[in-house]
Amino acid sequence: MPTPFFYHPRMLRYSFGSRHPLNPERLRRTIDILERIAPELKVVDPGLAEDSELLRIHSPDYIQAVRQLSVEPKSQFEYGFSSSDNPAFEGMDEASRAYTGGSVCAAQSIVEGEPLAFNIAGGLHHAMRSLAAGFCIFNDVALACVLLADHFERVLYVDIDVHHGDGVQQIALEHDRISTFSIHEHPESLWPGTGHVSEGDENTFNLPIPAGTSGDVWKEAFERALNLVVDHVQPSAIVLQMGTDPHLTDPLAHLEVSSQDWLGAVRAVKSLHTPIVATGGGGYNILNVPRMWVGAILTLLDRKLEDELLLVAPEEWGLHSFSDASPRRGQNALRVQDIVVDFGQRIGSLK
Ligand SMILES: [Zn+2]
To answer: Residue 181 Cα, ligand 1 centroid: separation in angstroms?
Structure first.
């Protein structure tokens, strides 16, 4: 059976300009490779998210502001549109509805019985109810969770982006059938400065990882925490945000995670045998993001990762292997161990 993969080239118009780190070229290269090596993906145009869908998670005045600023771009600080992180741009209403529509359709596919659906343009986890933040305008992953929670008893959001999934956490606090689990760089060293173990309510789970931690330590901590969360939550559907920015080459963060360890986290979520909406997310090294997303997608499709598959990409894209050579090992193992213990004690106290 082909797996639905929601994509349309209009999603590439989600761009804050050529000097902004969120480069649509990440998506274009990923799609280019997948078209040649993954015939089991059925590419479907999701169209645009509608007001009735956006209103499930965003305020009417914010939706209206995005529509207006999309015609006449300017700074509007009360809604988070500024000249640096989130500059308003012409056409941003349609571009934002395009990636959000992908997550709406992916959630609908899962409701209709698909075990897996993709929206790699999505994963914009920082947008708040009435605020653009961290390059995110509409929170497509929070919306996917809300739509799934209409039909599934327990929905689990899993976020492996290096930044805390703060927008989803905030929106999920209003929905008692959604739990959020985010592993991210520790708030002491990375924006947005939230994501402590103790935050949120009984459906909020955060695993902050200190700067400099190596991938083996990151992956083991993720797997242990994921097992604790899954035992506790017993999810019937999952939304997986696959930000690639924990990677050791990422210019915006400070973890030392190899692509093979990051893919191990994707594999751990796959092994739960629970229906998954899988999205993209952050990741700012253009030489790296496409191979990690392709690797993640093939992993979720139960395909073997053979480096030869990457030979379809132009040489200058620099995509040679799904694995990194000789990554560091054991960095911050003791400190991370303590954080996982805290994490486990907090879950234990909720029982
Ligand atoms: Zn990120």
So the answer is: 15
Å from CA of 280 to ligand 1 middle: 10
Q: List, by residue number, the catalytic residues.
A: 126
Tens-level pLDDT at each residue, the chain (351 residues): 899 999 999 999 999 988 898 999 999 999 999 999 999 999 999 999 999 999 999 999 999 999 999 999 999 999 999 878 899 999 999 999 999 999 999 999 999 999 999 999 999 999 999 999 999 999 999 999 999 999 999 999 999 999 999 999 999 999 999 999 999 999 999 999 999 999 999 999 999 999 999 999 999 999 999 999 999 999 999 999 999 999 999 999 999 999 999 999 999 999 999 999 999 999 999 999 999 999 999 999 999 999 999 999 999 998 999 999 999 999 999 999 999 999 999 999 998
The CA 126 to ligand 1 mean position distance, Å, reads 9
- Tell me yes or no: is domain 3-350 CATH 3.90.550.10: no
* Centre of ligand 1 from the C-alpha of residue 351, in Å: 31
Residue 211 Cα to ligand 1 midpoint, Å, equals 14
Residue of 24, 284, 289, 22 lying closest to 136 (CA atoms): 22
- Domain boundaries defined on the chain: 3-350
Between the alpha carbon of residue 230 and those of residues 12, 117, 233, the distances in Å are 35, 20, 5
Pairing of strands 237-241, 204-209: unpaired
User: What are the structure tokens assigned to 53, written together?
Assistant: 């869908």
Residue 156, Cβ density class (10 Å: 0-12 exposed, 13-18 middle, ≥19 buried): buried
Task: Give the Å distances, CA to CA, from 173 to 16, 38, 71, 201.
Answer: 29, 37, 33, 7
pTM: 0.98
Bridge partners (DSSP) of residue 119 are 279
